[in-house]
Design a protein that fits this description.
alpha/beta, 7 helices, 14% strand, globular
């Protein structure tokens, strides 16, 4: 963890609950300035109060952004450019949703999970990249072990054919990781000083994290994780959201992190344990698949990564 002499400005999306909250608290405790990028002002205010209660002198700001609305993403990026004109050191793309049993969509009509978890952050990253370039900053993408069983539709990478919440959540996380690793390659090819890193929390639950009474439980735990909560031996392979946030925090500010790496828990099956470089499934590094996703995402988000203009 960085010392206070290495103070940085880090923007965390979805910072009002779950992994995002604990990442923000840990970053603030390390002396960094943290921008809580959330869609709910009331929950953001509660998160700010909680962090200040646990971290003396926490340097915090709030930014409204709804990743399920590309107009909100654009407005938030413009506001961030006004409030942080000298740039930012890292953005932690943490915010995410788990879909309901029935298919739901974003404001622009994309299936909600891939539209929020991937496409919203794709547009957000494209629009905030110039601020990162000013500081040689990092983009941290929230991956998941759920990518292990996911495959995108080659004809429609952002689609939701044969919809199920479980399947689509995995697809959204595979999309996040394809984008994160591909961005690292393209930034390097362009000679950019910005790095792109993917991190994941293992199997982490709110109920095992330190109590924060003002913070509502995260609603981002997939259905397949819920039975784990009742297992007597869960502590042997599950950890709290605070521990799950550590790979994200490390990826955002630690000096030993390199672009294109994948950070996660170092224990059995990457379910829990100390943050370390871990292995992703080969399909998350498939550049042909990533290129299809990139093209579809630029078209859907109506943004373009002008990487050559950064240097």
């Amino acid at each position: 963890m960085s010392s206070r002499a290495e103070r940085r400005t880090v923007v965390v999306t979805g910072a009002s609950a779950g992994l995002g909250y604990h990442a923000a608290e840990q970053l603030a405790a390390a002396g960094h300035r943290v921008v809580l990028a959330t869609r709910d002002a009331g929950r953001a205010a509660a998160a700010e109060r909680s962090i200040r209660r646990h971290v003396d002198g926490a340097d915090l700001a709030h930014l409204h952004v709804d990743l399920a609305d590309l107009d909100s993403v654009r407005a938030a990026s413009e506001e961030l450019a006004r409030t942080e004109p000298d740039g930012v050191d890292a953005i932690v793309n943490n915010a995410g949703v788990v879909g309901a049993a029935d298919l739901r969509t974003t404001a622009q009509g994309t299936e909600l999970q891939i539209g929020t978890n991937h496409l919203g952050h794709f547009a957000w990253t494209a629009r905030t990249l110039p601020l990162l370039e000013r500081r040689g900053g990092r983009v941290v993408h929230l991956g998941s072990i759920a990518h292990r069983w996911a495959r995108l539709d080659r004809r429609d990478p952002l689609g939701a054919d044969h919809y199920s919440s479980h399947r689509q959540y995995g697809r959204s996380k595979l999309a996040v990781m394809l984008f994160g690793f591909e961005l690292a390659e393209r930034l390097a090819d362009a000679g950019s000083s910005v790095s792109s890193v993917v991190a994941h929390p293992g199997l982490s639950l709110d109920m095992l994290a330190p109590e924060r009474p003002e913070i509502a439980p995260s609603r981002s735990e997939p259905v397949w994780m819920r039975p784990v909560q009742s297992l007597p031996a869960r502590r042997s392979f599950v950890q709290g959201k605070d521990a799950g946030a550590e790979p994200l925090v490390h990826a955002a500010v630690a000096p030993d992190v390199r672009s294109g790496e994948y950070w996660g828990p170092g224990g059995w099956m990457q379910l829990r344990g100390p943050a370390t470089v871990v292995r992703a499934e080969p399909r998350a590094h498939d550049r042909t698949e990533a290129a299809r996703l990139w093209t579809a995402s630029e078209r859907a988000a109506r943004v373009a990564f002008a990487l050559d203009a950064l240097v």
